[in-house]
Amino acid sequence: MNLPPDPCFSGRFWSYVDQGDPATCWPWRAAVDRQGYGWFTWPGHGHRRQKYRAHRVALALVETPDSDELLCLHACDVPGCCNPNHLRWGTAADNVRDRDRPARRGLLRIERLARTGLQQLPLGLSSGEPSMPTHPDFATLDRHIFRVAHGSLLDNPIDADPGSNVWIATIWPDRQQPGGWGRLIWDRHPSGRGWTIHPLTHLGDVIEFGADTSTTPDRWYGYIADADETSIDLVGPFTTAAETQTDGSMSLARWRTPSPQAHGLAL
Ligand SMILES: [Zn+2]
């Protein structure tokens, strides 16, 4: 896809995009066609006017396609969306597969966030950041220390029966996902011991531990309150993902807004 080398091109293009949070849809604010896809008209500055499909430009400005034949696929199914995190290059076959696998969409977004580095907030390993407090409303919950070695989370709070499928996932609210939660399942660590901590995991994230047998599914929910090279602290266990999310976000908000004491007032 050939974009004009004019330095004004990208600025003008993005001025028509309602850029919000990296995770939300970014609507196109200029012309759209009947299907809802945006069209960007480049005046050409003395050359021929040129019309582009807006979402293709949005992605091409971030990632050059390997071939002009590739389609620009939406992970969010919002035709006017120009958030590159919701877009990727793919074939017609990929397009069909995407339609059939809605659960894939959240993962796609997370993978792209990892690749482009947009708002990438990896665990503050040895960053010296203070650990998050537990919000007073939920202060009765315990902090559990999980051991970490070489990026692998070694401990799992679920005492699973032999033969059950045990897994760990980072989860987040996402109305487009089945059950209202997006889910990124961590890989087993290549060493064979534990689970590889996903590079996008960060403080305040809800972590779901699961063990599935043929009879009863077992779950353990907690959110990350602290981390360093050798351990991750999780506050939990909560009964539901929603409770975990609520407490985690309240604690995170409180942690990001320093208390008066933190400004050096007398204690
Ligand atoms: Zn979108």
Q: Which key phrases capture this entry?
A:
single chain; 267 residues; alpha+beta; Homing Intron 3 (I-Ppo) Encoded Endonuclease, Chain A; eight-stranded antiparallel β-sheet; two-stranded antiparallel sheet; 25% strand; elongated; disordered C terminus; binds zinc ion
Q: What would you say about this model in short?
A:
The chain has 267 residues and is of the alpha+beta class.
Helices and strands, with pairings:
Blueprint: H1 8-14, E1 39-42, E2 50-53, H2 54-60, E3 71-74, E4 87-90, H3 92-100, H4 104-116, E5 142-149, E6 152-153, E7 165-173, E8 181-185, E9 195-196, E10 206-212, E11 217-227, E12 231-238, H5 241-256
This protein binds zinc ion.
Zinc ion (ZN) binds at residues 25, 76, 78, 81, 83, 86.
Tell me what you see in this structure.
By secondary structure, the chain is an alpha+beta fold. It has 2 domains: 7-100, Alpha-Beta Complex (Homing Intron 3 (I-Ppo) Encoded Endonuclease, Chain A), CATH 3.90.75; 136-256, no CATH class. Helix content is 19%, strand content 25%. The chain has 5 helices and 12 strands. The protein has helices spanning 8-14, 54-60, 92-100, 104-116, 241-256; strands spanning 39-42, 50-53, 71-74, 87-90, 142-149, 152-153, 165-173, 181-185, 195-196, 206-212, 217-227, 231-238. The strands form 3 sheets. Strands 8-7-10-11-12-5-6-9 form an 8-stranded antiparallel beta sheet. A two-stranded antiparallel sheet has the order 1-2. A two-stranded antiparallel sheet has the order 3-4. A hairpin with a 7-residue loop joins β1 and β2. The protein is elongated and about 70 Å long. Residues 102-129 and 259-267 have low confidence and may be disordered. The structure holds zinc ion. Zinc ion binds next to loops.
